[in-house]
């Protein structure tokens, strides 16, 4: 994952409302949720929710699929795993070992 892609993904999660939507979709699993279901679970107004879903989809964090007149939204678990891997890939790389202090007493 490149820096620009990671920055876009993290930026898309950078509001409480979008994070709540994403968490709701992660909890829903592979079946996903329709917009009305997300609205019922988060309490976000329809027009605002549409805006948040658009941003999350644009960043590749959620997938949207049509089934007739319904649109189902699902978390893109592969993308979320890549983001987690990106941020954790260098965990403790610069960790400085603590030296034991000699007892002068």
Automatic annotation (TrEMBL):
Where the record annotates domain HTH arsR-type, the positions are: 1-95
Q: What PROSITE patterns does the record point to?
A: HTH_ARSR_2
Its domain of life?
Bacteria
One annotated GO molecular function = DNA binding
Keyword annotations of the record: DNA-binding, Transcription, Transcription regulation
Protein name per the record: Transcriptional regulator, ArsR family
Name the species this protein comes from. Answer: Phaeobacter gallaeciensis
């Amino acid at each position: 994952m490149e820096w620009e892609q990671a920055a876009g993904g993290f930026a898309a999660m950078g509001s409480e409302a979008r994070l709540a939507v994403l968490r709701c979709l992660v909890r829903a699993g592979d079946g996903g949720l329709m917009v009305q279901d997300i609205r019922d679970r988060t309490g976000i107004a329809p027009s605002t929710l549409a805006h948040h879903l658009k941003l999350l989809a644009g960043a590749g964090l959620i997938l949207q699929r049509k089934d007739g007149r319904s649109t189902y939204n699902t978390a893109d678990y592969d993308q979320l795993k890549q983001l987690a891997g990106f941020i954790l890939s260098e965990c403790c790389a610069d960790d400085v070992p603590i030296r034991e202090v000699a007892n002068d007493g």
